TrEMBL record, chain A:
One of its GO terms (molecular function) is GTPase activator activity. It comes from Polypedilum vanderplanki (Sleeping chironomid midge). This is Rab-GAP TBC domain-containing protein. Keywords: GTPase activation. The lineage of its organism: Eukaryota, Metazoa, Ecdysozoa, Arthropoda, Hexapoda. It holds the Pfam family RabGAP-TBC.
From TrEMBL, chain B:
Residues 186-214 have a biased composition (Polar residues). Belongs to the small GTPase superfamily. Rab family. Residues 174-214 are annotated as: Disordered. PANTHER family: LD44762P. Keywords: GTP-binding, Lipoprotein, Nucleotide-binding, Prenylation. The lineage of its organism: Eukaryota, Metazoa, Ecdysozoa, Arthropoda, Hexapoda. The keyword Transcription does not apply. InterPro entries: P-loop_NTPase, Small_GTP-bd, Small_GTPase, Small_GTPase_Rab. It comes from the Eukaryota. This is Ras-related protein Rab-1.
Length: 347, 214
């Protein structure tokens, strides 16, 4: 846990770039070439889109990685670093059976010491109960297709319980629409008892800012996306700024770790592997990486708020996430390095 | 006059009253039983034939949870029309109209056009929590056209948006006339007042509207 969250300074660094560093020159390496998007006008699918749960047979690399992880699970010498490295490297934790074991390990959740699960009845008095139920009832797309109704309803009740347990235990944390999108990802993989402990840790660390009474901090934090864009591709930043499209397109990405916005289940859990092993601000770097990656599409769009909000808020189906995660990590390291270099020179 | 005009419309109201649903129903002519919660703000547009004149309706669909409001107020300022919604089966959503009206007053243009819609009017008598008369009354008090609508059964959806669009058109024509008069009356370098029809919604709205929305 120590390793995962020893990032206070990094966090402060990233915060600083918002205000002080926006005028820095792009001093980064230019050799990070991006696989360019195919030049085509995206067909916008505006329907409440289906989440694809399609599975593919594992390829030879995934198979090799799965075996390594299985071996590590049985090895008493495995440490947090082992899990962090698996979670971040290509293919992440490969499949949900492994995630069920490794996700708790990444957060130091002891699956042998789980609190008793209260009943929904015991939690119903919470003032957010109604709102939580409204959102949970509208989370159908996150469940695998063909799941028996009875089973789904039971899971939805469990989801409500997981959420209410956290906000009941931590009254200073406020529920936000989108929190249910995060919680359901863990519920479906780890079951309700473990999901609660995972959400407890995330809510007091990674998502703590999102759970403040207002979104004021989140609003400022989102500016990181533009700050990174400015550093990496000034013209792109200027184009976006001129359009006044704002940053609300990235709000669900940040609040739900992309769980609300992605179209394939496989990508959702892959990103969650990575985020569990990263600085809490990494989702913002991934957001920036996506914006930078879509540069050509963005420039082809009319420079106005509606067109750009519309383009950006809908994620293309074929985003190369391994590349984007790698790119985000590089952006993160580059920016935090620059910051510590600047601080050293300052002193 | 309104050559290829774009009308910016904002949909407001409590969580789960059917904001996303009405936008889908109107723009895509489809209905889904379950929607996903809107996180932040969503956008759709529709080209309509407004009494023979093509108009582009830009519809911004907002999250209902109160905490999102600070993020969406930038969109209030740009709105020419607001579709305010409640759910006839939820008394809370009706009682909260005063909260939404206050928000509109504080954040939107003073002369923004409003239409009130009470959704889910296909409900049974037992499910209904708000009588139509109560909707009529609040609509009259705040000078808003009012419709009970049903996204599920496609009742009054078109009427709702067309009424809003017509009211926006009237407003603009009215403003345009005032503007011409002022222009003619103007001698020398009189400073252009912000209420003369060139509010932040017309062309060249770059600086007045505030930089970014979040």
């Amino acid at each position: 846990m120590e390793n995962t969250f020893n990032n206070k300074t990094d966090k402060e660094n990233s915060e600083n770039i918002i205000e002080s560093d926006i005028n820095c020159k792009n001093n980064g390496d230019e050799d990070f070439t991006s696989p360019k998007m195919e030049v085509k006008k995206e067909i916008v699918n505006d329907e409440p889109s289906e989440l694809s749960f399609e599975t593919y047979p594992e390829n030879s690399e995934e198979k090799a990685k799965r075996k390594l992880i299985e071996k590590a699970i049985n090895d008493p010498n495995s440490r947090l670093d082992t899990w962090l490295s698996f979670a971040k490297s290509e293919y992440g934790l490969v499949n949900d059976d492994l995630r069920k074991i490794v996700w708790p390990l990444l957060l130091n959740v002891d699956t042998n010491k789980l609190d008793n699960v209260p009943t929904l009845e015991e939690l119903k008095n919470h003032k957010e109960y109604e709102q939580v139920v409204l959102d949970v009832n509208r989370s159908l797309r996150r469940f695998p297709p063909g799941i028996p109704l009875k089973h789904r309803l039971a899971l939805q009740d469990q989801l409500t319980v997981v959420i209410l347990r956290v906000i009941t235990k931590y009254p200073h944390l406020s529920y936000f629409q989108g929190y249910h999108d995060v919680a359901i990802t863990f519920l479906l993989v780890t079951g309700d008892a473990v999901a609660y402990h995972i959400m407890e840790i995330l809510s007091t660390k990674h998502l703590a800012e999102c759970m403040q009474k207002t979104f004021e901090t989140v609003q400022k934090r989102l500016l990181t996306v533009f700050a990174i864009t400015y550093r990496e591709k000034k013209e792109l930043f200027e184009f976006l700024e001129k359009s006044q499209c704002g940053l609300l397109f990235a709000l669900p990405w940040y609040l739900t770790w992309f769980g609300h916005s992605l179209n394939t289940y496989k990508s959702v859990v892959r990103l969650y592997d990575y985020f569990l092993a990263s600085d809490p601000l990494l989702p913002l770097y991934v957001s920036a990486a996506i914006v930078l990656y879509r540069e050509d599409e963005i420039f082809r769009e009319d420079c106005d708020r509606a067109s750009l909000h519309c383009l950006l808020s809908r994620l293309p189906e074929d985003l190369p996430f391994e590349y984007l995660l790698n790119y985000s990590q590089k952006l993160f390291e580059k920016i935090t390095d620059t910051m510590s270099y600047e601080r050293e020179s300052f002193y | 006059m309104d050559f290829s005009a774009t009308y910016k419309v904002l949909v407001l109201g409590d969580s789960n009253v059917g904001k996303t649903c009405i936008v889908h129903r109107y723009c895509d002519e489809r209905y889904y039983d379950t929607y996903i919660s809107t996180i932040g703000i969503d956008f759709k547009q529709k080209l309509i034939n407004l009494d023979g004149v093509p108009v582009k309706l830009q519809i911004w669909d907002t999250a209902g949870q109160e905490r999102f409001r600070t993020l969406t107020t930038a969109y209030y300022r740009g709105a020419m029309g607001i579709l305010l919604m409640y759910d006839v089966t939820s008394l809370d959503s009706f009682n909260n109209l005063s909260y939404w009206l206050r928000n509109i007053q504080e954040n939107a243009a003073p002369d923004v056009v409003k239409v009130l819609a009470g959704n889910k009017c296909e409900c049974t008598a037992a499910q209904r929590a708000v009588d139509k008369e109560r909707g009529d009354k609040i609509a009259e008090n705040f000078d808003m056209p009012f419709f009970e609508v049903s996204c599920k059964q496609n009742i009054n959806i078109e009427e709702c948006f067309l009424t809003l669009a017509r009211k926006i058109r009237e407003q603009r024509e009215h403003r345009g006339e005032n503007f011409d008069e002022e222009e003619q009356a103007k001698s020398g370098n009189m400073k252009r007042s912000t209420s003369n029809g060139l509010g932040p919604f017309t062309l060249g709205n770059s600086s007045s509207e505030g930089r970014c929305s979040c």
